[in-house]
């Protein structure tokens, strides 16, 4: 079933809470970008405010509190960090319904360091955990689709980035990303594809028609003069 997932990219925990407050009753799933300033150029919460020592992050880790309105949302965390595998247990304490890992960068940085290590990581995950949480694999337009295809059978969905410039909202959606969606849908029957970066009201239907199952919407909603109306229009497309 096709769906719309609002995206939150913020440096401050208070702003994450504000946006989740706005989304209450309007969306079931919320996508939150976790950026460490290493894998991406700019950090977001918690790395923009102390990393794992951030007071709000610590409260969640110590099980004193949960994510805001955790009873109401399915959280999808996009781990744009260099230590996603190494600190998997820490990120799990955020209470994700979905966790997204990224292919390694050319310089060797990346969530899984190398393909073999990531494969072993996926194969070693507890089956109960896999039954209750989805794992996604994110890739950029310029990434090698043969590697994406190789790993696709070990994850629950593919997360197609609409631009090579990840970690920012408001980027232009790449035509190469559209080609990638069509290619993967044709060659990997049954695969679920979510799309992130550059999704707006002008291109959303085209992306869905290309085969996307979920659209992750950030600036296309938040920077609209009428965010509620924009979200409702996106939702009407699915």
Report on the structure:
The protein is an alpha/beta fold and 238 residues long. 34% of the residues lie in helices and 19% in strands. It contains ten helices and eight strands. An eight-stranded parallel beta barrel has the order 1-2-3-4-5-6-7-8, surrounded by five helices. Helix 2 links the parallel strand 2 and strand 3. About 3% of the residues have low confidence.
Q: Given the structure, what is the number of helices?
A: 10
Radius of gyration (CA) equals 17 Å
Structural class: alpha/beta
CATH class: Alpha Beta
Strand content: 15-25%
What's the quick description here?
This protein is an alpha/beta fold and 238 residues long.
Descriptive keywords:
238 residues, alpha/beta, TIM Barrel, 8 strands, globular, RibuloseP-bd_barrel
Secondary-structure topology with pairs:
Layout: E1 3-8, H1 13-23, E2 29-35, H2 55-61, E3 74-80, H3 88-92, E4 96-102, H4 115-123, H5 127-132, E5 134-139, H6 145-152, E6 157-161, H7 175-187, E7 193-196, H8 204-210, E8 214-217, H9 219-222, H10 227-236
Parallel strand pairs: 1-2, 1-8, 2-3, 3-4, 4-5, 5-6, 6-7, 7-8
């Amino acid at each position: 079933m096709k769906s719309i997932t609002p995206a939150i990219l913020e440096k401050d925990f208070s702003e994450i809470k504000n946006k989740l407050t706005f989304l209450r009753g309007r969306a079931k799933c919320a996508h939150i970008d976790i950026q460490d300033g290493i894998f991406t150029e700019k950090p977001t919460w918690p790395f923009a405010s102390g990393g794992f020592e951030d007071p709000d992050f610590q409260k969640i880790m110590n099980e004193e509190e949960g994510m805001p309105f955790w009873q109401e949302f399915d959280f999808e965390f996009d781990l744009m960090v260099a230590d996603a595998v190494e600190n998997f247990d820490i990120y799990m304490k955020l209470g994700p319904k979905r966790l997204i890992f990224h292919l390694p960068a050319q310089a060797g940085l990346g969530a899984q360091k190398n393909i073999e290590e990531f494969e072993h990581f996926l194969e070693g995950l507890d089956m109960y955990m896999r039954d209750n949480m989805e794992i996604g694999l994110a890739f950029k337009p310029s990434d090698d689709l043969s590697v994406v295809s190789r790993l696709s059978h070990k994850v629950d969905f593919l997360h197609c980035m609409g631009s090579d410039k990840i970690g920012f909202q408001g980027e232009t959606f790449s035509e190469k990303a559209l080609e990638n969606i069509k290619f993967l849908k044709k060659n990997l029957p049954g695969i679920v594809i979510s799309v992130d970066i550059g999704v707006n009201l002008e291109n959303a239907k085209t992306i869905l028609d290309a085969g996307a199952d979920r659209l992750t919407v950030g600036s296309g909603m938040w920077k609209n003069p009428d965010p509620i109306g924009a979200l409702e229009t996106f939702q009407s497309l699915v």
